[in-house]
């Protein structure tokens, strides 16, 4: 039986992948899941030891340093985890003649393009986090093994720490919220990412070098952070009666410019990513972001994971 080495299973995407691959197993494959204790991404030799012990035919690597603002003051740690670790994993995968699926981000772009980004557009990260993720992409490409680099955006889910959970927490305690309205992208649920990767595993021919490369993997459509927050609150209120959820305190959600909410790390104002390449190459298309949000909201348990 061939093995898949899955990293980052205590993180947002890794947890969703582990859950989905257990629910919809891939015939002839065994998933070996690693958390940060089982694989220290800051220790290259430990990474090599784990990969050699598992001897996978495929590495799926969602684990990452994702603290965007903290990365501005922790650049060495961000690059160790987001650039050096993927390079080591790619080198070990190449030694085993294995493939690799790696996750990247919309933050490799500067956000100045007026329309949606395609995979061939110029990359120009404006934050340490974005630069570290781009360095990881470059390292994998330089190793030259069969790989898919999946750039996603605005990842959230019913579990873990993310924008949806923050909005609901604040909406329970504040009557008014001010949310950035001049940054646009596609909210993408961890569950929809996991479902898409499972589809990819059915159709990706690792040995086909034409498939190797970068793909955008995000929910369809786009909105602003303000639009996303408003949709979250609206959906919660729609479901509150059915599920006997406690009422929200929030009465007003006001749009503001990003300049009114300064952060240590600069964010791209345009994070809209085209997914046509993914659909044309593999026939994989994610649902509209509103549909995925509806699915995530039905999984919430206020008082438990909110």
Automatic annotation (TrEMBL):
Protein name: dTDP-4-dehydrorhamnose reductase
E.C. designation(s): 1.1.1.133
UniProt cofactor(s): Mg(2+)
Keywords: NADP, Oxidoreductase
Source organism of this protein record: Methylophilus medardicus
Catalytically driven reaction(s): dTDP-beta-L-rhamnose + NADP(+) = dTDP-4-dehydro-beta-L-rhamnose + NADPH + H(+)
Organism lineage string: Bacteria, Pseudomonadati, Pseudomonadota, Betaproteobacteria, Nitrosomonadales
Note on cofactor: Binds 1 Mg(2+) ion per monomer.
Purpose: Catalyzes the reduction of dTDP-6-deoxy-L-lyxo-4-hexulose to yield dTDP-L-rhamnose.
Domain RmlD-like substrate binding: 3-300
Presence of the UniProt keyword NADP in the record: yes
GO biological process, one term: dTDP-rhamnose biosynthetic process
Any Gene Ontology CC annotation: cytosol
InterPro entries linked: dTDP_dehydrorham_reduct, NAD(P)-bd_dom_sf, RmlD-like-bd
Family affiliation: Belongs to the dTDP-4-dehydrorhamnose reductase family.
Top EC class for this record: oxidoreductase
Molecular-function GO terms, alphabetical: dTDP-4-dehydrorhamnose reductase activity
UniProt pathway annotation: Carbohydrate biosynthesis; dTDP-L-rhamnose biosynthesis
